[in-house]
Amino acid sequence: MSKKTIIPFGPQHPVLPEPIHLDLVLEDETVVDAIPSIGFIHRGLESLVEKKDFNEMVYVAERVCGICSFMHGMGYCEAVEHLMEVEIPDRAKYLRTVWCEFSRLHSHLLWLGLLADGFGFEALFNEAWRIREKVLDMVELTTGGRLISSVNRVGGVLKDITPDMQKAMLDAVDKIEKELKPVANTFLNDYTVKSRLCGSGILSKEDAIALGACGPMMRASGIEVDMRKTGYAAYDNIDFDVITSNDCDGYARCQVRIGELFQSINIVRQAFAKMPEGEELSVKPKGNPNGEYLMRVEQPRGEAFYYVEGSGKKILDRFRVRTPTFANLAPLVHTLKGAPFADIPLLVLTIDPCISCTER
Amino acid sequence: MALLTFSKTVLKNLFSEPETLNYPATPREYPERSRGHIEIDIENCIFCGMCMRNCPPRAITVDRAKGTWTINRFDCIQCNYCSEVCPKKCLHIAPGYCEPGVEKVDSVIERPGGPLPMPKPPVKKPVPPKAPAAEDKKADEKAADSKAEDTKAETSGSTNPNVPRNDIDNCVFCTLCARNCPVDALTVNRAEKVWEVDEDTCVGCGMCVSNCPKKCLSIG
Amino acid sequence: MEDYGRNIVEITTDQLVIVASEERDKNHRLSQACASYVNDKYELLYTFSDGYEMTTYKLFVGLDEEVPSISRIFFPAFTYENEMKELFGVKIMGIVTDYNNKFYRIAKETPFLKKGDK
Lengths: 360, 220, 118
Prior knowledge:
The structure holds three protein chains of three kinds. By secondary structure, chain A is of the alpha+beta class. Chain A is 46% helix and 14% strand. Chain A is built from twelve helices and eight strands. Chain A has helices at residues 57-61, 69-84, 90-118, 122-143, 163-189, 191-197, 205-210, 216-219, 250-274, 324-336, 344-350, 355-359; strands at 4-9, 21-27, 30-37, 152-153, 156-157, 290-299, 302-311, 318-322. In chain A, a hairpin with a 2-residue loop joins strand 6 (290-299) and strand 7. Chain B is an alpha+beta fold. Chain B has two domains: 28-110, 2-Layer Sandwich (Alpha-Beta Plaits); 133-218, Alpha-Beta Plaits, CATH 3.30.70.20. Chain B has a three-stranded antiparallel sheet. A two-stranded antiparallel ribbon of chain B has the order 1-4. A two-stranded antiparallel sheet of chain B has the order 6-9. The longest helix of chain B has 23 residues, at 133-155. The termini of chain B are far apart. Helix content of chain C is 19%, strand content 33%. Chain C contains two helices and six strands; from the N terminus they run E-H-E-E-E-E-H-E. The longest helix of chain C is centred in the last third of the chain and has 12 residues, at 77-88. The chains are: A alpha+beta, B alpha+beta, C alpha/beta. Chains in contact: A-B, A-C. Chains A and C meet through strand 6, strand 7, strand 8 and helix 10 of A and strand 2 and strand 3 of C.
């Protein structure tokens, strides 16, 4: 038996823009154990709920994370709306769906870029981010912010998508689809990419359940769970299949996310086709939230939980976000065990880590 | 397995225009809805302080006595909530981000023609805000049988959620609400135990609620 | 789809480990666990899911009461339990990987408890 060495990984590491620290126990070149530690950027946003009223809290909630900002805002609003039993206008539901899918598009493209960067394919990284730019332009055109949209409120949305904007968005979506095809082809079929991803970071179906994995991580292990099927926003009227893969490795996760990119494009088209006309975008909630509710939302990285508890006051008692990366920490530790040291950055990337989300 | 799947894209990129802007020679054009900075039509501002109290990062300071509206643009998160809550709709967000700087500075906007005149107290001899509560209670009890009941019926009748309501049993008629109302919508008469709100004038800013020492006012 | 967001079952501290073992036997996954501090006592929530079905167990715990850890049954519980322990000061005993209040690098002890409560 060889000697064990402990190698620190992070918090500053070239593949990760955000700080996560791993203590890796190595035997030769193989990892035998890993202890994750986070906590470099804990901001205590959850406790701000004791100072802001429930309408103002939307703006705090959506600043939990920059990438899934829209969905954080929406998740919080949906939770409070369920709590107060507010039915939002139909058009607002569809608008939320469109923006949700645009945030999924840009989040997955960001991840693809980072993954390509992680295994040293710089040209592919730039290509993925070039497509992402088109998505961000559309988000800026319709909401006013490139990442932080600030269009949600408890009871609906604040801004409408005008027919001109709708046309611009549909054109952009067509263009994105066209440009995405060669990039997706490279990710899925290229020899170098495949030899890097195939067989790395195996997470079996049983382990995925036992370790509470979520999102694409879980679907890549062959479990058909996508919280969009629970029918929040307008997803109950939209026809889509859950994308899964049975390969359970890094390549499968890439496959699932690329599949979801094309699916998102499809959902945007469907949502625009089914979107009802209407002037009313939001309803004013009556009274104050009272009771508790646990809302689930499918974020690009997986299912996120929003727990709100109110006692009939303007200020909620408790707001809690469980972000997907937090749930994926345990599966990450599992996949790291037995992996060669050179694969660590790539494996950390395959869970699509978002540390500022995780720590809130 | 395929080799050289990316070569076509590489060749295409080699002979096409760059995707990036030649910044700063070509400036970036912001779309109309772009949230860059907050602007104020100071002439319409009534200095109610709604924006100050609702700003998530507390970047706005409204000084009624000096007639200034101050924003720390480095603290502002461009969420647009102030313009959502502004009762006079004199705040709006415009494209164009704040210039970078070496330190956080406030930008102060003064009302042309000096501060708004402070509303005159409706009662000639207003009770100071820290009036002994016991005295008021006694007065309340004396008048309770005769007048309080009719006033209660009168004030709780308002169903408009944007107008303040008064829990008349706890009210000490200190007139602080009326003195702080930016639009003079409140009438408080201590001697006759009358508390009235003019629903047409009221902008629902909540200034009265935040100044009420007995916390008997509520809005929304 | 049924509204699982309100599917909250109240249990006592003694039942927690039994409930968790049952959920583990049914091959459900631990979705989330969190604490909140309302009306001078902790409220702990443990959510288990099976596909889209979700059950949340809620227990009320006093400030000095000890709570057994479920991280031996559900390994991923260690992150949630460390978080509860550090932010709220819930006395959770026997966490598999106990960070001893170093999970988040924060200066204050139990920052989510209101001042003067502890």
